[in-house]
């Protein structure tokens, strides 16, 4: 479900995401975006009608990520705990390779705060993702693979929270091997969740 962006549109979206990741939301001005691309500000409007259109493009990129991620998860074989672990590591790889995308996904409420329609769109994607995690946890609990003495939603919170904390740690104290940290977190989490 890839959107058909031109090469320049993808560059503009990428630069905007990097600016937000590195300098915060206030840095995502058309002036700063143009400066990073070494073009004049009016040139941006050949590719996007306005700043909101750039943010819509970022939202489209997030949507692409969720659809691609979902497609990859559906191909994973194994127990529910194996599926959750594979999803954790798969997401870790994406966040390690594209930290600006990871930041955008984990901070979407903040990034899209000025655009309610985009915030709702990303919220719906995250809700669907959460529903899938809950379903997989429930399957694992019913099969006796995942602990039943823990509430399903609390397990989902543990998984999501562990992932976010590992992501933030990678950002704060830039790790030369962020994937190693994610894998270590997952191994400890797996031991905690296994029945």
From TrEMBL:
Give the DNA-binding residues.
Answer: 29-48
> Any idea which GO molecular function terms this record carries?
DNA binding
Keywords (A to Z) from UniProt: DNA-binding
Tell me the InterPro entries matching this sequence: Homeodomain-like_sf, HTH-type_Tx_Regulator, HTH_TetR, Tet_transcr_reg_TetR-rel_C_sf
Start and end of every HTH tetR-type domain?
6-66
Q: What is this protein called?
A: Transcriptional regulator, TetR family
């Amino acid at each position: 479900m890839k959107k058909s962006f031109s090469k320049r549109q993808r560059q503009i979206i990428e630069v905007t995401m990097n600016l937000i990741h590195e300098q915060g939301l206030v840095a995502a001005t058309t002036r700063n975006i143009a400066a990073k691309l070494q073009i004049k500000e009016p040139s941006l409007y050949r590719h996007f009608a306005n700043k909101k259109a750039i943010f819509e493009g970022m939202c489209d990129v997030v949507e692409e990520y969720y659809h691609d991620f979902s497609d990859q998860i559906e191909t994973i074989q194994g127990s529910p705990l194996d599926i959750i672990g594979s999803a954790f590591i798969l997401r870790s790889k994406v966040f390690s390779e594209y930290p600006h995308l990871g930041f955008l996904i984990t901070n979407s409420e903040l990034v899209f705060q000025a655009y309610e329609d985009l915030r709702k769109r990303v919220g719906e994607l995250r809700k669907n993702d959460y529903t899938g995690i809950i379903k997989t946890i429930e399957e694992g609990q019913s099969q006796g693979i995942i602990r039943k003495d823990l509430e399903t939603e609390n397990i989902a919170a543990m998984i999501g929270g562990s992932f976010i904390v590992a992501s933030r740690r990678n950002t704060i104290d830039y790790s030369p091997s962020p994937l190693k940290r994610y894998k270590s977190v997952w191994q400890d989490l797996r031991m905690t969740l296994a029945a």
